[in-house]
Each structure stands twice: as structure tokens, then as C-alpha cells.
Write a structure and sequence with these properties.
Layout: E1 2-7, H1 11-24, E2 31-32, E3 40-47, H2 53-61, E4 69-79, E5 87-93, H3 97-109, E6 123-128, H4 136-143, E7 149-155, E8 157-166, E9 169-179
Antiparallel strand pairs: 1-3, 1-8, 2-6, 4-5, 4-7, 5-6, 8-9
């Protein structure tokens, strides 16, 4: 099974992002993320044997207790940069999320899962750019947006997700929920 760990988004934030995507989608022929698939990844696990699922859940459930994490969804950008875009993203401001990502990475590493080589950069992947294309219409639409703010919430838990690639696109299924202590 292909797995990752992350945060879910509340309905009002998803609705804000759906409105954003409705504006931007016609401006560029990129592979857009379905709003139902928007999430904040804290740890990509990759392939994991189903027979070791309880071991993984136990490790994730054993993370240090923490309070709710304030999260703001704001700003738009590109990885690696605007001149050679591969990923179109929405920013995530949540300073406490880095600690959760580090703790999750450490718990996974103890099970033999490779640690992250890159520094943690929380974001929502809005689309993937496979081909070189004229980004002016998209950039102009972004510049015309009334606000770079798309929602704020308090994360009260994180999830273990399964990722399945189907002919109709990716499907993410929550396998386990891990509440924060308060």
C-alpha cells in the first residue's frame, strides 16, 4: 500500500479553494488537483506492507502529545520557481506543523522508512505542470485575485492516508486518525 501522513482541510477552506480553482483552471492546461484530494502532507511513507499496518499505527499514535495547531492557507507559488514551474501550490502558515513533521519522520524512521532529505515546506499542491507552457494567463489571474487568503483553522488531529492511483485519478482514503492531546 502507498501511504502518507497529513492533515485534512475543513469544508469552508475546501470551498474557498474550489472557488479559486474555478477561476484559475481555465487559465492553464495543467494537471489540477481535485478539491477532494487537497491535504497537507507531513510525511510521505511510500509503499508499506499491509501486514505491518498495526506497527505503523502504533508508532504514529505514540508521538509526543501536542495542542491544536493553528493553520492559515494563503499565498500562491511554484516549485521549484516561477521560471521553471513543476508544482503550483498554495502556502500553509503553521509554525507548529514543522514539529509534527519532524516527530512523524522520526517515528517512521524508527520503522525503517527513509527520513526526509529536504526541509519541510508545508503546502497544498493545486496542480502539476508537466509541459512548458505560457504561464502569463495564470499569473495575470493570480495577480487579479482580491486576496491571497483562503482559510484558517485549528488542526486537532492528523491522519494516515492510503493513496491509490486509478484511471480516473488519485483516491486518498483515511486509514487512521490520531487526535492531538487538547
Amino acid at each position: 500500500m502507498r501511504l502518507f501522513v497529513g492533515l485534512d482541510l475543513p469544508g469552508d477552506t475546501i470551498r474557498n479553494l474550489e472557488r479559486l480553482l474555478a477561476i484559475l483552471r481555465p487559465k492553464a492546461r495543467i494537471s489540477w488537483t481535485a478539491p477532494a484530494n487537497l491535504h497537507i502532507t507531513t510525511k510521505f511513507i511510500g509503499e508499506w506492507p499491509e501486514e505491518r499496518m498495526d506497527e505503523l499505527k502504533l508508532a504514529l499514535g505514540g508521538l509526543a502529545p501536542r495542542g491544536k495547531i493553528p493553520v492559515r492557507i494563503r499565498r500562491l507559488g511554484f516549485f521549484p520557481d516561477a521560471q521553471s514551474p513543476r508544482i503550483f501550490w498554495c502556502g500553509v502558515d503553521a509554525p507548529a506543523l514543522e514539529t509534527l513533521a519532524k516527530d512523524t519522520d522520526s517515528a517512521a524512521a524508527a520503522l525503517g522508512i527513509q527520513s526526509e532529505a529536504r526541509s519541510f515546506s508545508p503546502h497544498l499542491t493545486l496542480g502539476r505542470i508537466k509541459d512548458r507552457l505560457d504561464m502569463r494567463p495564470l499569473n495575470e489571474a493570480i495577480a487579479a485575485l482580491p486576496s491571497p487568503e483562503f482559510g484558517a483553522f485549528e488542526a486537532r488531529c492528523f491522519f494516515l492516508y492510503r493513496s491509490q492511483t486509478l484511471s480516473t485519478g488519485s483516491v486518498y482514503t483515511k486509514l487512521a486518525e490520531f487526535p492531538f492531546s487538547s
